[in-house]
Automatic annotation (TrEMBL):
Keyword Oxidoreductase tagged: yes
Keyword Oxidoreductase included in the entry's annotation: yes
Keywords, comma-separated and alphabetical: Oxidoreductase
Domain Ketoreductase stretches: 8-187
Organism: Fimbriiglobus ruber
Any one Gene Ontology molecular-function term assigned to this protein's record: oxidoreductase activity
Superkingdom field: Bacteria
Family designation: Belongs to the short-chain dehydrogenases/reductases (SDR) family.
PROSITE patterns: ADH_SHORT
Name this protein carries in UniProt: Enoyl-[acyl-carrier-protein] reductase [NADH]
Pfam families in alphabetical order: adh_short_C2
Length: 250
């Protein structure tokens, strides 16, 4: 891979596994120094850092719960301490739980909105302060659900609809500072989380594969190259966009 991110520094939230881990590895392979953030899986984060350094890249792991504002500040202090600058933020940390309307509780609502929306906004707030005069790139990981709106996902889909709206709003607000804000909206991707939720062999997966023109669910490496593109100067005139990567599923 060409080193199109040489000399740049990226923070990737929720990067100990799945899509976040693959994005961290791809950014590092393109030359960026990467802060691999994790909330609970130190082992997973250390593994990602180990793979990056073994391949000749630069990375550190930093623990921070993105639903906790003090942790968010700590994450960016550590990033600056380690690398001295910041150019790229990937807002990947997120949680999903599905529930029918009658089972929705305030706890279910706040758990997802505090991380998926408020955490993303506060992380972007810190990143915007840390970017240099040359600006930066913010990449929000949203989801195909914001447009596909499947049943039983009211709160999760609401969080991702909010992320899409935040992406467009902040692109307008931060554009004058040369900060670009875009989103990647993945379809169903085979990750540790999908396996843990029992979705990898589910009817939901079969239904997805039947409806997706490309006939399969995604892999983390299907998503990561788009993050490299959005982080690099190849996308210098792109902001406020959501890129759907879902095998044609809508």
């Amino acid at each position: 891979m060409s080193k199109k991110l040489q000399g740049k520094v990226a923070v990737v939230t929720g990067a100990s596994k799945g899509i976040g881990a693959s994005i961290a590895q791809h950014l590092a392979a393109a030359g960026a120094g990467v802060v691999v953030n994790y909330a609970s899986s130190k082992e997973g984060a250390d593994r990602v850092v180990g793979e990056i350094t073994k391949a000749g890249g630069k990375a550190i792991a930093v623990k921070a719960d993105l639903s906790n504002p003090a942790d968010i500040q700590h994450l960016f202090v550590e990033a600056k301490k380690a690398f001295g600058r910041l150019d790229i933020l990937v807002n990947n940390a997120g949680v999903y739980e599905f529930a029918p309307l009658e089972a929705i509780t305030p706890e279910h609502f706040h758990k997802m909105f505090n991380l998926n929306v408020l955490g993303l906004i506060l992380a972007t707030q810190e990143a915007a302060k840390s970017f240099g005069p040359g600006g930066g790139s913010v990449i929000n990981i949203s989801s195909v659900v914001s447009s596909a709106t499947p049943a039983m996902t009211t709160v999760y889909t609401a969080t991702k609809g909010a992320v899409d709206a935040v992406t467009r709003t902040l692109a307008k607000e931060l554009g004058p500072k040369k900060i670009r804000v875009n989103a990647i909206n993945p379809g169903m991707v085979e990750t540790e989380g999908v396996h843990a939720a029992g979705l990898s062999d589910s009817d939901m997966r079969k239904q997805y594969e039947a409806q997706a023109p490309l006939g399969r669910i995604g892999q983390p490496q299907d998503i990561a190259p788009a993050a490299v593109f959005l982080a690099s100067d190849d996308s210098a005139w792109l902001t406020g966009e959501t890129i759907l990567i879902a095998g044609g599923y809508r």
